[in-house]
Amino acid sequence: MLKTFRGGIHPPEKKEITEKIPSLPISPKDEVIIPLRQHIGAPCEPIVSVGDYVYMGQKIGESTSFVSAPVHSSVSGTVKEIKPYPHPTGGMCMSIIIENDHKDTLAEGIKPFTLDLLPDKIKEYVDSLDPKEIVSKVKEAGITGMGGASFPLHVKLSPPPGTEIDTVVLNGAECEPYLTSDHRAMLEHPKLIICGALMIKKAVNAKKILMAIENNKPDAIALMQTLLKDYEDFEVVVLKTKYPQGSEKQLINAVCGRQVPSGGLPSAVGVVVSNVDTCSAVADAVVRNMPLIRRNVTISGDAVANPANLIARVGMKFEELFEAAGGLKENPEKIIMGGPMMGMAQTRVDVPMIKGTSGILALSKAETFGDKEGTCIKCGKCVDVCPMRLMPNALTTFAIAQDMEKLKEYNILDCMECGSCTFICPQKRFIVQHIKKGKQLLK
């Protein structure tokens, strides 16, 4: 029986556009823009100056805060400017602009990937590692969750004292429409994912690893089941295709049968969740000291000439990625970083790709939601599909009325803004937008 959670929706998948297209490595043009905020937590401070020569993979920004992640140069070249620059999540962010010399000269300490990815060799290598060394290398490499939330991974791998982690869940659900970068990662470098997952397991002293994949990816499921026969601590869990299956709390509930408490983290129920491509970055960091400076990203939508999966570097402008996908064949109605359900709408294409950029979509008018909302007819559909078991209709009413006490009473902060309510609403109400405003009111 396919595993899943209560609630959720099944929007048009649109994955057929790019799911069969292999990932294409591309290189930056004349400059990259590296924002000093690419993660949940404290932003970094620059540790280089204008005029400095930097190497590919060199640390250029860091923070003393525990919940943070350093940033690194994705090219070799000269620091051109350090200034506020538009950020894809909104507003301005202090950024380091580097003039690319197109030599990709690696920073000192970054080694070739020499580990033989045969099962016995991987096991032997991971067994030789010290858990603290894994966490240290993950932190130094600036690895954050690559599913979109961008939570610093070293924090996940350092649970509170007395917390026992027994299960690592690998998130291969990729439930957002259009996005196929994780799917391609599982097909194109599965052994690297396995290697990184075993390192995460070792770091938190877990007993088992559950790889969760939705059943709309049969090729990835079959490949992983074949490869994982040689690993007794792995299990592939096949999920029913449903949105938001990839959300941490819903994923844990589906594959482990555990309920993360309100306001709690997965560690509270003995689980660490990691995106599959994040595992690849862990293997790269531990084996060869390579920081997170590139990632798989899906470029899709009706306005894109040749939708593609790309292996692109952090700091490349969105316009470069669209150009690598053949450019835009029409003026898009909306450009989104991430998926259409939880992604961030963009107002310009000269903003840089960051560590959490899983996709960039250019949508035609036919693909977008519209700009007018109707009146609630109290049908209750939003309540039926809410994966957090909230009452989105009531939260919307209280947010519009700015009723702080009711917003707290109805647990508005438990809303993860997945957009299921907005999608299902027959009146096309902007429910998530109202809830976001309600949260801002509380803050």
Give structural notes:
This protein is of the alpha/beta class. Helix content is 28%, strand content 19%. It has a 6-stranded mixed sheet with strand order 1-14-13-17-15-16, with helices on both faces. The model has no long low-confidence stretch (mean pLDDT 96).
List keywords for this structure.
443 residues; alpha/beta; Rossmann fold; 3 domains; 6-stranded mixed β-sheet; 4-stranded antiparallel β-sheet; 28% helix; globular
Largest sheet: 6 strands, mixed
Number of contiguous helices: 14
Q: At the first level of CATH, what is the class of the largest domain?
A: Alpha Beta
> How would you write the strand order of the largest sheet?
1-14-13-17-15-16
Number of strand elements: 17
This entry's quaternary arrangement is: single chain
CATH architecture of the largest domain: 3-Layer(aba) Sandwich
Principal-axis shape equals: globular
CATH topology name of the largest domain, in short, is: Rossmann fold
| Regions with little confidence, pLDDT below 50 for 5+ residues | none
Strand % is 15-25%
Number of domains: 3
Rg measurement, Å: 21 Å
Class from secondary-structure proportions: alpha/beta
Round the mean pLDDT to the nearest integer and report it. 96
* Helix percentage: 25-40%
CATH superfamily of the largest domain: NADH-ubiquinone oxidoreductase 51kDa subunit
CA(first)-CA(last) distance: 42 Å
